[in-house]
Amino acid sequence: MPDIQLLVADEQNREALATLVGERYTAVCEPELQPCDLHLVDDRSLPQYREALVAHKREQRPVFCPVVLIRRDDTAIDVDVADPDPGPDVDPPLVDEILTAPVERIPLFRRLSNLLVRRSQTETLRERNERLEEFAGRLSHELRNPLQILDGYLELVYRRDDRAHLERCQRAVDRMDRMIESTLELARTGDVDTDLEPVSLPRVVDDSWEATASDEATLTVDTDRWVAADEDRLRRLFENLFRNAVEHAGDDVTVTVGDVDDGVYLEDDGPGIPADERDEVFDQGASGSGGTGLGLAVVEETVAAHGWKVRVTEGTEGGARFEITGIDDVDEGQNRH
């Protein structure tokens, strides 16, 4: 239910208006300006709240924050009434609608309903724009590795006339196609299906390492588990963890993947992550090496989609250690979930 703040000077008028507004909405009568869906202000209170209301509308753009002025017939007041399309570089006008006191029920609810519908539409538009921005950043980030692989192997094909590398090029193209489809699905719906099947963890780890590691890096795999997972998403999880290790620990990093009681760990021999920064490493945009900050956000999202848990701690060599737990083991021949 939308919140409507009543910025009305007279207590009796405020209480009466709260009773009326409360029939359909949540009436807020706090004296300090609140981040509500709509603000009703009378001509006596407007001077007191003018600056705060303008600042609130400016901060919330592009979301529409409607202000309705209630004025008496004998009151002269200088306000700008909203332009339907003020443009992105113009401050939003202070007042969006004017009602004359005494307020009548039907006109009041008609105006409030129209304004709140418009606010809802701008909130939806903002969410879509944010999703598109995330989509563009995610797609750019996720396609970087398969494009590098494709470029490298195509160079070998042309330089050595060795067509054996074309199969790897095709696998890279197929991976990009799957990434684009899943990212488009995320952009459209905000979610991606997790298709569980028996997956060989060592094979996924080796494939992910081949796609991301530098020639100087070293991998040790100490697990032979088969797990229930979405193979594409699990591969991208390890690719992002490996990429994170190379970016923060250097091209000659040593990475170890092994078992914990109900899951798997991945650790490197790099500088590690300070204890007071470990809670923030999965936030989108968090990066300590000039990266996009998307990689570990993808890791956390993938873990959550599978119903697993991930935590960051210190590795045996002082580097970063990621422990993913809650993973279900399966038999190699088990049927698809």
Quick recap:
This protein has three domains: 3-103, Rossmann fold, CATH 3.40.50; 127-189; 197-325, 2-Layer Sandwich (Heat Shock Protein 90), CATH 3.30.565.10. Helices cover 44% and strands 18% of the residues. The chain contains seven helices and twelve strands.
Number of E-type strands:
12
- Largest beta-sheet details: 5 strands, parallel
N-to-C span: 40 Å
Series of H and E elements:
EHEEHEEHHEHEEHEEHEE
Helix-strand category: alpha/beta
Q: Roughly how many Å is the radius of gyration?
A: 28 Å
> How many domain units?
3
Strand content: 15-25%
Highest CATH level, the class of the largest domain = Alpha Beta
- CATH arch. level architecture of the largest domain: 2-Layer Sandwich
Q: Strands of the largest sheet, in order across it?
A: 2-1-3-4-5
Helix proportion: 40-55%
| Shape designation | elongated
Annotate the secondary structure layout:
Blueprint: E1 3-7, H1 11-21, E2 26-28, E3 38-42, H2 46-60, E4 67-71, E5 97-100, H3 105-160, H4 166-189, E6 197-200, H5 201-212, E7 218-222, E8 226-229, H6 231-249, E9 254-260, E10 263-268, H7 295-306, E11 309-314, E12 320-325
Parallel strand pairs: 1-2, 1-3, 3-4, 4-5, 7-9
Antiparallel strand pairs: 6-8, 9-10, 10-12, 11-12
